[in-house]
Amino acid sequence: MSVNPFSRLLLAGQSFSIAGRSSLLETIAQQITLPRAEAIDLHGLPGVGKSELWRYIADGAFVERYADYFLPGIFRDEPRRLFRIYVPFQNQVDEGLHPFYHLYHIFNAALQNYLEADGKGLISRGQLPEADDLKDADVALESVDKQVRALVDEQVRPIFLFDDFHEAFRFLKPHQINRLSRWREYAPLLLSTEQRLEKVNNVAYG
Questions:
Q1: Are 90 and 164 in contact (CB under 8 A)?
Q2: CA dihedral 128, 130, 134, 137 (to 10 degrees)
Q3: CA 206 – CA 181 distance, rounded (Å)
Q4: What is the C-alpha separation between 81 and 98, in angstroms, rounded?
Q5: How far is the C-alpha of 121 from the C-alpha of 118, rounded, in Å?
Q6: For burial by CB atoms within 10 Å, which of 77, 165, 170, 188 has the most?
Q7: Half-sphere exposure of residue 79: CA atoms within 13 angstroms, side-chain side
Q8: pLDDT tens string 159-193
Q9: 3-class secondary structure per residue, 73-104
Q10: Stated pTM of the model
């Protein structure tokens, strides 16, 4: 892969705080409601506020303030169909814990919370596949993928906010990168990175 396999919009090196970054949030609001899901890679130095931004988007305040910038359609009419999952990878991934295990546990906890709150009345646990038993990292991703696709079929859009994604990327193999990058076709992937992906895992990057 000669280009970032995830990103179609690269907001490189932008230092920001929530205040004064309305234009960036407006752009993201539009991107996550496109008919075809997109990926965003926000790259910058430590401490510029990337994690703060991702947590803000995962919070209900973002939807309340920026729903008017969602593109016309079902997600603007029913913003609660946007299921936002914040996944921090910093200090969560080491040699003994593959990133896909971490993703699996966070996703399933977030899904349960969503079904009891914003998703209540839209979709029930019975409409989704059961989470698979964890045999290996690939099974963990496959289990999440099946549930993501089922949500999409019910017109619920999962939005993954991967924080410090470079920490996870260093452990991924080429076939795992390919499988994860295909999510951008139906579930927006918002990545924050402090290191260029080709620098942390040149083999997987291609």
A1: yes
A2: -20
A3: 14
A4: 29
A5: 8
A6: 165
A7: 18
A8: 999 999 999 998 899 999 989 988 888 899 999 99
A9: CHHHHCHHHEEEEEEECCCCCECCECHHHHHH
A10: 0.87
